[in-house]
Amino acid sequence: MASYDSAGTGPGGTDVAATDVAATDISGTRLLAPDPREAAVLAALHTRLAAEAEPAGLLDVAYTVIDSPVGRLILAATDAGLVRVAFECEGVDTVLQDLSTRISPRILEAPGRLARPAAQLREYFDGTRRSFDLDLDLRLTAGYRRTVVQTLQQIGYGRTSTYAGIAALTGNPGAVRAVGTACGRNPLPLVIPCHRVLRSDGTTGGYRGGPAAKKILLDLEAAA
Question: Distance (Å, rounded) from C-alpha 65 to C-alpha 69?
């Protein structure tokens, strides 16, 4: 077994601190950086697992992460359709844990199932798409919140409504606060356009992806 002295010098005088050691654990023990060849093998195994899991009926939730002008987006889909669009600020691990708890622990990064939603979102951000043509799985919302989410789909590209206006459209004009909650918990932002809902005074109001993201989306549509 090769040995290393206290200065981190290996056989032949190689400075492992400069070549192999990337970090330390909480005890201060040096950890070797991942071998790129091992990473490639693991990536290939993951791809193979994803490819074999779906036809075998072992993949209940597929996810991928894409870049966008409002930060990285986490997309997730079941065999019924797109089930979640999440912002990076929500936390990838938090989003995946929620999906695992609420839908199924059989969740895997499998970009193939998300190819169409990813492509349509890129077209939207490029300004070449004004509506989405996707199968949607709304199982993460129910009751009045689901009614609100479905009503949001009536707001056209480049148009806006208000929380009060959506409440009226649902037949419950007094439910303005409930509409705000439903928008804040919309599982499919962007695709179901809760960013187009403003306060009655014209200010933007809250947004799951943050106020800056909401402004970017509104400005993008207004400029089209």
Answer: 13
